[in-house]
Amino acid sequence: MIARIHMASRSATMPYLPPQKRSPEQVTRWVRDVLLKLCRTWVAVRDAEIIGYAALDGDMLEHLYLRPDVRRQGVGTLLLDEVRRHSLDGVSLHVFQQNTDARAFYESHGFTVLDTADGDRNMENLPDMTLRWTPNPTEV
């Protein structure tokens, strides 16, 4: 289910991405063999169905994806709050510069831009940026 959410969300929210080169089976194997083994992963569940997930590797939020039909219902905020609750020193993430919805979401939750890059650090070769959230001393 995480693999389906990953693929559906990327397709629905980032139409500028190059076509997916990996098959659904390959993405499912990646979730099982890489994502779930390397990252602390949280899922959002509604009516016994996974509707979103967040994956944290150290202090890097590697993924936060939702089923497209549950966007803008607070699910992403709940997942992000859980990630931040487990990240006392803060959280960083990369986001495509073109992903204005995600950038607005993270900035509305206190993330600030640390740097920008021309795409040389992601497999899509698209300009991205690093965002960082650091808790206020009163939040810890």
TrEMBL record:
Single annotated GO MF: acyltransferase activity
Domain spans labelled N-acetyltransferase: 1-132
Protein name per the record: GNAT family N-acetyltransferase
Enzyme class at the top of the EC tree: transferase
Keyword list, A-Z: Acyltransferase, Transferase
EC number(s) per entry: 2.3.1.-
